[in-house]
Specification:
- This protein has helices at residues 28-44, 49-61, 66-84, 88-97, 145-160, 176-200, 206-219, 227-235, 240-248, and strands at residues 11-12, 22-26, 104-111, 118-124, 127-135.
- The chain folds into two domains: 3-142, no CATH class; 176-253, no CATH class.
- By secondary structure, it is an alpha/beta fold.
- It is built from nine helices and five strands; from the N terminus they run ββααααβββααααα.
- β4 and β5 (127-135) form a beta hairpin.
- The structure holds zinc ion.
- Zinc ion binds at residues 151, 155, 191, 194.
Length: 254
């Protein structure tokens, strides 16, 4: 089995904790694209050494039988990604997220598709949940990664928090006609609440939190004059039912 496919290769354990290890599984295609993007950044800076080294290593693999070649390419990408530190941003963010021990067993990282970037929680009966994290490969190794992960992992923290009160029921609105609109409002409110809490904790840019709050106000069909009331609402820790009530009846924010 190649290093890229072996979950032990990407195993991460919170230092000193007796908690079960959280396995981070990187989809090979994401890894390949992230390494390629990193090499392109090196070349753009005028540094060709790593790109040439990768090319030489890859050239040797083309001589292998097809059944071995793919696994060896994946192993090469994992080695280079580790060398460039492309894993560390996520590992740091997971440590900072501080999820309850054992609540999440696995994080599966995939390249973003047409549905865009984001994190989602998939509970599993009798076992730690799986977090699906879709991201643009080019984010890895850049400054754009940390704020993105802080935001996305906080969605998961909320879902794992019993006080948030998420019960796995994703239905919103009172019928087919309203569901899409209510879902958009719910998401805008939840994202703005996350940015507000991160900004209060000094972990996000206050300007970003303000822009996020303005966007939520617009999405809810409120007036710009409603922004201060919405901001004080957003600064409080939300619950699933409170977000749902406001998404269904935006006037509650006034
Ligand atoms: Zn969000």
């Amino acid at each position: 089995m190649s290093e890229g496919l072996d979950p032990r290769a990407a195993r991460w354990r919170r230092d000193g904790a007796a908690a079960p290890a959280l396995v981070v599984r990187w989809e090979p295609d994401l890894m390949a694209r992230a390494v390629s993007d990193e090499l392109a950044r090196h070349v753009a800076r005028g540094s060709f050494v790593d790109e040439q080294r990768y090319r030489r290593a890859a050239d040797l693999l083309y001589g292998l039988p097809p059944e071995q070649r793919e696994a060896e390419f994946q192993a090469l990408d994992v080695r280079m990604a580790r060398e460039f530190g492309l894993h560390t941003g996520l590992e740091d963010a997971l440590e900072q997220a501080g999820w309850p021990a054992g609540a999440v067993a696995e994080v599966v990282v995939t390249p973003a598709t047409g549905r865009g970037e984001g994190a989602d929680l998939r509970p599993r009966a009798g076992a730690g949940a799986v977090v699906l994290l879709a991201l643009e490969p080019a984010r890895l190794g850049t400054r754009a990664l940390a704020p993105f992960l802080r935001h996305e992992l906080m969605h998961i923290s909320d879902l794992l928090d019993p006080e948030f009160g998420y019960d796995g029921d994703r239905r919103l609105g009172d019928g087919v006609g309203t569901e899409v609109r209510v879902r958009e409002r719910y998401h805008a409110l939840w994202c703005a609440s996350i940015d507000a809490r991160l900004a209060t904790a000094g972990r996000a840019d206050p300007a970003l939190a303000e822009a996020s709050a303005s966007r939520a106000v617009r999405t809810l069909g409120l007036e710009p004059g409603d922004l201060p009331a919405a901001q004080s609402w957003l600064a409080e820790r939300p619950t699933h039912s409170r977000l749902r009530a406001c998404a269904e009846s935006p006037g509650l924010l006034r």
